[in-house]
Write a structure and sequence with these properties.
Length: about 300
């Protein structure tokens, strides 16, 4: 298992470098002048002399590859630069905002699993009956609604009209309920449909008919023979859902005033704060890659054929 994990980690590192370089180059080759944005945020008049000095200070007079390698060398030392807007270290600010985003995304993932898996199993075991039709209609509706619109709807109903839950902020456990529900709704509905399709596929397998012929109890059939085999595809999808939840949290954080990394990144986008954006993409990509590594290891632990194929 350790060799398998190391191989997977080695294969993910080039992906991390490719994403960081692609985003770095996109910022430099996009519309606008980074030196001009730097002077604007520093409130320095953009004279020709100031622009030339800013380009030399930021290394913009070198090639993109040279600029990236210099930035990467500093990033490997734990230095992601200094925000052009706040004049504070980027890594320090990311470390301040990241826990709130991880809390929101983690809670949303728990909601996704707690809602999607049981409803998907219930729909599959009652195929073409009213529970199946009901859950499929709910999943279709949930996938169709954007999370920011759900956020405004939840605020209107549960915070403004009923007064049950706080509308904004991060004060106590009750403040995370509405943001987590708004973030997790689409992922939970996708998980529901995936679990339903996976369980239906397992129910038609020959080994399940043999298990029924042996007279095994229904609980044993579902828990040991159906769920253990049916949860492998949804487990793989959890890694993709995590990226979706982290991305969706950016918008939801703005709706609910959640003090997370998403709001911090949106402010950096509005200000064209290049060091913050580069650090944000690097940290988020690293979190996503590590979470997918954990999912791959869990998948290989549940299905030893993955390890054997990798070893072969």
């Amino acid at each position: 298992m350790l060799r398998f994990a190391l191989r997977r980690l080695a294969s993910l590192l080039p992906l991390l470098l490719l994403v960081s370089f692609g985003f770095f180059a996109m910022l430099r080759l996009g519309r606008g002048d980074p030196a001009l944005d730097y002077l604007r945020l520093a409130q320095i008049p953009p004279t020709d002399a100031a622009l030339a000095l800013a380009r030399a200070e930021l290394g913009l007079d070198r090639s993109i590859l040279a600029q990236y390698l210099a930035w990467l060398a500093e990033a490997l030392r734990g230095n992601l630069g200094e925000s052009w807007f706040t004049r504070r270290p980027v890594l320090e600010e990311i470390a301040h905002y990241l826990p709130a985003t991880l809390q929101l995304a983690g809670t949303a993932m728990l909601v996704t699993i707690a809602v999607g898996v049981p409803l998907g199993l219930w729909a599959a075991l009652n195929r073409d009956r009213w529970p199946d039709h009901l859950t499929r209609a709910i999943s279709f509706l949930g996938v169709s609604l954007p999370n920011f619109w759900l956020g405004f709807l939840f605020v209107l109903v549960f915070a403004v009209t009923l007064g049950w839950l706080p509308a904004i902020g991060r004060d106590g456990p009750s403040s995370i309920i509405l943001p987590a529900l708004a973030t997790a709704t689409m992922s939970a509905c996708v998980m529901l449909r995936l679990v339903r399709a996976s369980v239906l596929g397992v129910l038609g397998e020959p080994h399940l008919r043999f298990a029924r012929a042996r007279g095994l109890p229904r609980r044993t059939l579902i828990g040991r023979h159906v769920m253990l085999n049916a949860l492998l595809p949804p487990l793989t999808a959890i890694g993709l859902h995590l990226g979706e939840l982290m991305g969706g949290a950016m918008v939801v954080e703005s709706v609910f005033g959640w003090p997370g990394l998403g709001r911090y990144a949106l402010t950096a986008i509005a200000n064209r704060d290049y060091p913050v954006l580069q650090g944000f993409v690097l940290v988020m990509t690293t979190v996503f890659v590590l979470c997918n590594l954990v999912i791959d290891i869990a998948y290989a632990w549940l299905d030893p054929r993955i390890r054997l194929e990798g070893a072969a």
